[in-house]
Design a protein that fits this description.
Helix 4 crosses helix 5. The radius of gyration is 19 Å and the shape is globular. By secondary structure, it is α/β, with parallel strands linked by helices. Strand 11 and strand 12 form a beta hairpin. It has one domain: Rossmann fold, CATH 3.40.50. The protein is built from twelve helices and 16 strands. Strands 2, 3, 4, 5, 10, 14, 15 and 16 form an eight-stranded mixed sheet that branches. Strands 1, 6, 7, 8 and 9 form a five-stranded antiparallel sheet that branches.
Length: 323
């Protein structure tokens, strides 16, 4: 059997019976396969809470939606940051494709969340497209296509499954180059193309009429992203161990698979009529802007410019698209 890399990644992460996110993931954090800023400290949640209050004033939106909320740690910190009195101004929705993580979110958040949805269009329909949306480490979890330079042209990486082993092979590129900044450069090395993330954004964006969105993820702008890692950023995590190269193919369904986000592409995709960018900054800059207080040694990791505070980027946009 042969398939593009994106098909392999889709099955490995989201197969209903054997996918990592849909069936196998146990938890996020020290006891899981990976940790996030939200599981390490409530500081990011405090900053998002203040961002929500500011954007509610600007946009008038009163529905909060978190997409891909993991075990609920981030939303828990956000709601604590809002405080019980200010929480009364909002209704809170969670959107997640993982039944396993939804159960963990329900146990942690309880009645403070009004509804859980499996897709963002369902949540937007419930609030008539007027919402404050945020997501942390979401776009990096979408399946990607792999492209590799061969000669003076880009080729697509396909996988051949034979006798329980996986072998890569290059095929002529069949992807559309229009949305992808990486394809417009001189072919060199290997990089990822976030086809599925682009399709996801374009699917629900017309349903979002008013509000603001905060995207938080690890990544960089193009071409710095590819120059920094010319062999690509794809890797897997199994029990806190980072796996690269052909190791990514060894444990499908038992490990997270991820790559850095190309924020040049994401910013271009969101430059739609009715949507305008309000900020693009590091996580450290975002937190310091909304929570300008000294942090503990444990929390310093997520605000330090040489750690996650620099590696993670925060992209803010506002939406005003009258019907």
């Amino acid at each position: 059997m042969t398939e593009p890399f994106s098909s392999f990644m889709q099955r490995a992460l989201y197969d209903p019976q054997r996918g990592y996110y849909t069936a196998r993931i146990k938890t996020v954090g020290a006891r899981g396969d990976f940790s996030t800023s939200a599981t390490l400290s409530p500081l990011l949640g405090k900053a998002i809470a203040r961002w929500l209050l500011a954007e509610a004033t600007h946009t008038g939106a009163r529905t909060i939606i978190e997409v891909g909320g993991g075990d609920g740690s981030l939303m828990n910190a956000v709601l604590d940051g809002l405080g019980w009195w200010r929480r009364l101004r909002f209704q809170v929705f969670m959107v997640d494709a993982s039944p396993v993580l939804i159960e963990q979110q329900k146990q942690r958040l309880g009645r403070r969340v009004k509804h859980w949805f499996s897709t963002l269009p369902e949540a937007l329909a419930d609030c008539e497209g007027k919402a404050l949306i945020f997501h942390n480490e979401l776009l990096d979890a979408f399946p990607v296509d792999l492209i590799q330079a061969e000669g003076n042209a880009w080729h697509e990486v396909w996988l051949r499954h034979e006798g329980g082993t996986v072998r890569e092979e290059l095929r002529p590129l069949a992807l559309s180059s229009e949305p992808f900044c990486a394809l417009q450069a001189r072919p060199t090395g290997r990089c990822e193309v976030a086809t599925a993330a682009h399709e996801w954004l374009m699917h629900w964006l017309p349903l979002w009429n008013q509000g603001a969105m905060l995207t938080i993820d690890y990544g960089d702008l193009f071409p710095a992203l590819c120059h920094r890692r010319p062999h690509g950023t794809l890797r897997a995590y199994l029990m806190q161990q980072r796996l690269t190269g052909t190791e990514v193919y060894l444990n499908p369904g038992r490990q997270d698979i991820t790559c850095d986000v190309n924020f040049t592409d994401v910013r271009a995709w969101l430059a739609q009529p009715g949507t305008h960018e309000t900020a693009f900054e590091t996580q450290a800059e975002f937190i310091r802007r909304f929570v300008p207080i000294p942090v503990s040694t444990r929390e310093a990791f997520i605000v330090h410019e040489q750690g996650a505070g620099q590696a993670f980027k925060c992209l803010g946009v506002r939406r005003s698209c009258p019907r």
